[in-house]
Amino acid sequence: MTRFISLTKYLCPLIVLFCSASFAAAESSSPKNAKVFIKEPADGATVQNPVKVVFGIENMMLMPAGVPHSDSGHHHLLVDVKTLPEAGKSIPADDQHIHFGKAQTETTLNLAPGKHTLQLMLGDHLHMPHNPPVVSKKITITVAAPVAEAETKAPAKPNKKPTEADAK
Ligand SMILES: [Cu+2]
Fold this sequence. Notes:
The protein is an alpha+beta fold. About 20% of the residues lie in helices and about 30% in strands. It is built from 3 helices and 9 strands, in the order αβββββββββαα. The N and C termini lie far apart (about 95 Å). Copper (II) ion (CU) binds near residues 65, 91, 101, 123 and 127.
């Protein structure tokens, strides 16, 4: 009896694994604790161009595009993306969906001054989102206007000592 119980205990997860694998053969699976996150900049930060973005990953392996390997993928940086890329399709490649197919762990961006959102999504060797998708929290940053531009808009006050006239 004990032997039977322990056997089913090990067999059940295996059966579930095989079944789910056959139903979702097109998508690469990801472990439950898989995580990607933006290490830099901090959420809510005000930054200057060029904006350095550092990627973090946990419980998945970084692998260049085109190299199939279980529990692996490469980063995709989503800039001002409102709707996440669809499951079962390659993540689009454009200015708002930047692929890091060489397994890079950081990048620098030049963004228009103002507010922007950044989010990471892992894609497999075929640039497809995993099942379940491995997506970071979406952060918002403010890109400050270039210093020269900021100065012309708000000229710095001349550095002089306060006089009696100033005090009145
Ligand atoms: Cu990709």
